[in-house]
Write a structure and sequence with these properties.
nine-stranded mixed sheet; 11 strands; alpha/beta; WH_DNA-bd_sf; 301 residues; two-stranded antiparallel sheet; D-Maltodextrin-Binding Protein, domain 2; Arc Repressor Mutant, subunit A
Length: 301
């Protein structure tokens, strides 16, 4: 074949950034050289790989077909190069994205462990809600994602990492705070502040209430868990948040976990990746070490 790794790298960068100029900056090339490499690749393949939509370069059907294959070739080329320099097989960069709870409470320990055990593995990390992480994995923006709850997309593989549970919290001065138990009817009468639609926490909470509470009085929706925690601590709102996000505030008396016998909400935190991607030792290493850490932490509890 006459195409080059440089042309594939240009194609992948333009696909990631949806811009020739941004791809040129990323690859340290001139814009004209980047445009020429892309044009040569399209000419050799005999198919258009992108179409312009305003200022965006959007993949065509052929471009979407080519992208996972190009990324695998680029990854293999990187491993060959590193191998000749006698570097450890677990070398290179991987893009990881996680939803907020995992990002705040679990991923830092994982990255610290990876940095210590696999110093040649570099993790490029971003935080988004579960829907955003899933979109990024689907669009090849992230090699690996961590989400809350289930993923039913046939293009995506899912593997459970660990489990967390959601709790209903109130301030210490809320009328429900000193009750031995709270009923579903009482929850329906309360005012709520919740995560936004698209967040895994919100999706799981809504699913748990389905058929139990018809109309919840939701006053505010926010992306930021600290905002929700403070609103609950300062006001008469209730919220549903991951236990990992509130345990320290419960221990110091700022928040109270309500006992709701008719409601128990457990959720998995899972790894996701595109199922059209071939073997990736970096991705497999991170999943393996994460599961090992989770088992070790469970034994400590």
């Amino acid at each position: 074949m006459r195409y080059s790794l440089k042309q594939l790298a240009v194609f992948d960068a333009v696909a990631s950034l949806e811009s020739v100029s941004l791809a040129a900056d990323k690859l340290a090339l001139t814009q004209s050289a980047t445009s020429m490499a892309l044009a040569q690749l399209e000419k050799m393949l005999g198919r258009p790989l992108f179409e312009r939509q305003g200022r965006r370069m959007v993949l065509t059907h052929w471009g979407m077909w080519l992208r996972p294959k190009a990324k695998q070739l680029l990854f293999d080329a990187q491993q060959i190069e590193l191998g000749f320099y006698d570097q450890h097989i677990i070398s290179g960069e991987l893009s990881l994205a996680a939803s907020q709870t995992a990002a705040e409470h679990l991923v830092p320990e994982l990255i610290s462990h990876i940095d210590s055990s696999f110093p040649e593995l570099r993790i490029r990390f971003e935080v988004d809600n579960s829907e955003g992480v899933l979109d990024g994995v689907r669009n090849y923006q992230f090699d690996l994602g961590i989400i809350e709850g289930r993923c039913d997309d046939s293009r995506v593989e899912q593997q459970i990492w660990c489990h967390d549970h959601l709790v209903i919290v109130a301030s210490a001065h809320h009328p429900f705070a000193n009750k031995e138990s709270v009923s579903l009817a009482q929850l329906e009468q309360a005012r709520w502040v919740l995560r936004e639609h698209g967040a895994g926490t919100r999706e799981i909470f809504d699913s748990a209430l389905l058929g139990l509470i018809e109309d919840l009085d939701v006053w505010r929706e926010y992306e930021q868990v600290p905002v929700l925690r403070q609103l609950v601590a300062d006001s008469q709102y209730l919220s549903c948040l991951p236990y990992l996000d509130v345990v320290k505030f419960v221990e110091r008396g700022d928040l109270v976990v309500l006992k709701v016998p008719d409601l128990s909400i457990e959720r998995p935190l899972s790894f996701i990746w595109r199922n059209d991607r071939t073997e990736n030792p970096l991705r497999d290493c991170i999943k393996r070490e994460a599961i090992r850490l989770a088992k070790r932490n469970r034994r400590k509890m």
